[in-house]
Amino acid sequence: MERIAFDLVVFKKGIFFDVFNSKIIPSIGLIGLISLFSFVAIYYMLYGVHLFDYFVFNFIGFLFFVMAFIQIMKIFGDADGTYLKKEGLLLIDENEITIDYTTKYPITEITYVKFKMMNFIKPRMFVYTDRRIRRYTATDNYLEFQYKNKKYNFQFIVDSEGHKQVLIEKLIPQLRTKTEASYMIY
To answer: Can you give the three-state secondary structure of the chain, one letter per residue?
Structure first.
C-alpha cells in the first residue's frame, strides 16, 4: 500500500485575538451609540441645535460604531481571531507514521491510533451551540497515538471525501492488524 499524505496545521493567534474575543468593546460601542443618539436627540429637542453638525460628535459616533462593528466582524469574519498555519506533512502507511519525512513512528511499537474527523467537505461551516457561533473547517481532524508511553496529537487537513474514504476503508483496517486503531466521525 502506498502512503497517504496529509498537511499538518496549527492554530496561531492573530494580531487582534484579544480584541475579537473581548465582549466588553462591542458592548461599550452599542451602549455608546444608543447613549450618544439619545443625548443628541434630547439636546436637539431642548435647544434646537444639531450636535452632529460638529466634528467631535461625528468622531465619537464613528468610534462607537467601530466598537460595535467588531462583533459583526467576529461573526462573519474570522470567528475567533485565529488562523491556521501549515506546519508540516503527515504520512501514514501500514508500517509507520512519518512526520515531515524525518520523524518515524513504527506501527508495531505504537500502542493505539485514534482518528477524529469531521464529516463534511466544505471548507467552513457555522454551528450554533450554547448560543455561540462556532466555525468548523476541514481542518478539525485529529490524529492521536501513543508511542513509547508518550501521547502525540496532530491536527491535519482532509482534502476531499475520497481522501477520507481511503483512510477509513483501506488504511485503518490495515493498521488494525498491527495495533489498536479506531476512528470517530463527528
So the answer is: CCCEEEEEEEEEECCCHHHHHCCHHHHHHHHHHHHHHHHHHHHHHHHCCCHHHCHHHHHHHHHHHHHHHHHHHHHHCCCCCEEEEEEEEEEECCCEEEECCCEEEEHHHEEEEEEEECCCCCCEEEEEECCEEEEEECCCEEEEEEECCEEEEEEEECCCHHHHHHHHHHHHHHHHCCCEEEEEEC
Sequence letter at residue 54: Y
**Most distant CA atoms of the chain, gap in Å:** 85
**Distance (Å, rounded) from C-alpha 78 to C-alpha 107?**
38
* pTM check: above 0.90: no
Q: What are the backbone angles phi and psi of residue 69, rounded to the nearest 5°?
A: -70, -20
- In angstroms, the first-to-last Cα distance of the chain is 27
CATH architecture group of domain 4-13+82-185: Roll (2.30)
Residues 84-130 pLDDT 10s: 677 888 888 888 999 988 889 998 899 999 988 875 544 454 544 55
CB atoms within 10 A of CB 152: 15
Residue extents of the structural domains in the chain:
4-13+82-185, 17-76
